[in-house]
Amino acid sequence: MDRLRVIGGTSLTGAVRIDGAKNAALPILAATILGDSPSIIRNVPPLSDVKTMLSILESLGAVCSFDMENNVITVDPTTINNYTAPYDLVRKMRGSICVLGPLIGKFGKGTVSFPGGCVIGQRPIDLHLKGLRALNVSMNINHGYIEASTDDLRGNVVFLGGRFGSSVLATANIMLAAVKAKGTTVIESAACEPELVDLANFLKAMGAKIDHAGAHSITIEGVQNLDGVDYTVIPDRIEAGTYILAGAITRSKVTIENIIKEHLWALNDILTHSGVLIETKDNSITVDARSGIFKPLDITTLPYPGFPTDLQAQMMAFMISVKGISVITEKIFPDRFMHIAELNRMAADISLEHATAIIKGGTPLSGAPLMASDLRASAALVLAGLIAQGETVINRIYHLDRGYYKMEEKLRSLGAQIERIPE
Ligand code: EPZ
Asked: In angstroms, what is the span from residue 254 Cα to ligand 1's centroid?
């Protein structure tokens, strides 16, 4: 398994370009199933999660090609002849669950392995099942698989509010079935993440009738046919936020290019409050943290447009570098703190009270051998390594490769001392 080796203490300079959004690309690739003709999806980086989704589409019988030089994917769904997404692929990536909606929307049936949990939490799918049942889909759970079918997919009013406010992929799944249902569907307490707006825009380009995606109440009028289209995915706000925090933690001035500034308000607002200079232009952000003196922070992760849970670990790394007591409360995935133990191995001083982390910042970090545990925790360990004294080696970085394309190359282009050590 590849490892990353980081030598801390170097400030960064220059600009880095952000790739397409993993969490938009995955449901959009699933949505290609609905087309009566091939789709071309652009601006998709060759991430391992993307490759897993393509393997699932191919296991269904679709014909896929991936031009990884130009980040262009072609999916021909007209050859799909299998309606079961297998366990050995679904277990690699929970996002696979969103092939269920389009399989039902197009074929009236679909079987998907019940996705397991992961280190960030239980990851239940009760809202997915509740929403699909509301559209007159019957579901059985047999031998670890969800077997869904309907011979009369009908629109309905579906309330998707859960204990955590809303669900991103449950909203996607219901949208992906409802676009082909008879009549009108209203998704109440829908998730509002930009990646869902991108999915809705893709579906509308295919011919779907969707209103108010991005709001808490989405209306969908079912249609008979959807055609494949040529579509470009939005930039990845979480990758962008990770590099903004790399600039902040190393007390550098760097520019992050190819972003949508509206998607980063929460992060930029909180960093500005701390004293970091943030300058936004149309599609770039320049972070200037060279002053070095910042205020500790108190953050709670929330559904969009609140502070994203996917930047919680990376923000914690930044907080370690800020003198004083900072607090992070995780409201989306209360167990999403695997990074704390590893950061404390670097001499950080972080304690956990239920879903609230207390960070006593300002003590220097020392480089150490570390173990990556999940995608965003891995990114936090890289950020901490950038400022630690000496060498940090991060093992199992296949977790990182799920959502960051060649992070070591991008950071090295900014001046970081970082290299990938192949197995
Ligand atoms: C999506 O996961 C993202 N993944 C996650 O990003 C992200 O952290 C999450 O949304 C929240 O923004 C993809 O888009 C592929 P949820 P999702 O359903 O849809 C609970 C990353 O690092 N819940 O919005 O699976 C759930 O347990 C990944 O890129 C139910 O209770 O997340 C959680 O507490 C990690 N029942 C909360 O809702 C359900 O049926 C929000 O989860 C579904 C979810």
From this structure: 30
